[in-house]
Amino acid sequence: MRDIKELQQTLGLSFSHPALLEQAMVHSSYINENPTRAAGHNERLEFLGDAVLGFIIADRLFKEHPDIGEGDMTRLRAALVRGETLARIANQIGLGSHLLMGKGEESTGGKNKVANLAGAMEALIAAVYLEFGITTTGDLVTRLYSVEWEELTSRGAVADYKSRLQEVVQSKYQEIPLYRLISETGPDHDKQFRVEVIVNARVIGSGTGKSKKMAETEAAREALQRLAVGFTE
Fold first, then answer.
1. SS (H, E, C) the chain
2. pLDDT digits (tens, 9 = 90+) for 118-160
3. Which residues are catalytic?
4. Full-prediction pTM beyond 0.70?
5. pLDDT class of 27 with cuts at 50, 70, 90
6. Ordered structural domains, the chain, with CATH
7. Is the CB of residue 49 less than 8 Å from the CB of residue 123?
């Protein structure tokens, strides 16, 4: 295991009790081979970290996306806290190199396994929570999730609203929604796109966004809302 001070530098945090962070990096296989280690492995911290991360993600989704329902928030939260997502974030901060595990587990690529990396991330989040509290932990999660958050929330919404609209329209009108770009404004670094969605030769929704996909998402969302209330114009 690399110097725990290096991990603290990566996180931008200084622990008063670094032993807590050290324990977060101990895989159960290491304890199996070294049963006298007093600190124990990280599975209890994983349990707490999973709950803390779930709350932080749910709280942010609730506050930043007031227009989506429970089902959508549940789906997005699941995507953001699943093992593959956590493992990608763990790799971004080089967490695998800090893991302490048994020789058998390490020899089979244990430091690169999704389950081990995801568990270590959850344990790390718990350690930060216990040391610094929920506000600092939330700030850390926001920073670590900056890329994943943008990609998963935007792409998830695109797939969901557009696919749901297509299902509704095919069932009701036996056709596929047509998305039409109306305008593209602003400089290259700050584009704004406006899109309309057409069904049965009528515009039933429009939306704007920083990409065509985001604008289409908004158009599909508006169309679904209007269809739900019996839009007939």
1. CCCHHHHHHHHCCCCCCHHHHHHHCECHHHHHHCCCCCCCCCHHHHHHHHHHHHHHHHHHHHHHCCCCCHHHHHHHHHHHHCHHHHHHHHHHCCHHHHCECCHHHHHCCHHHCHHHHHHHHHHHHHHHHHHHCHHHHHHHHHHHCHHHHHHHHHHHHHHHHHHHHHHHHHHHHCCCCEEEEEEEECCHHHCEEEEEEEECCEEEEEEEECCHHHHHHHHHHHHHHHHHCCCCC
2. 999 999 999 999 999 999 999 999 999 988 887 776 665 555 6
3. 50, 122
4. no
5. very high
6. 4-144 (1.10.1520.10), 163-228 (3.30.160.20)
7. yes
Residue in this structure with the two tokens 């069932």, named with its chain if needed: 171
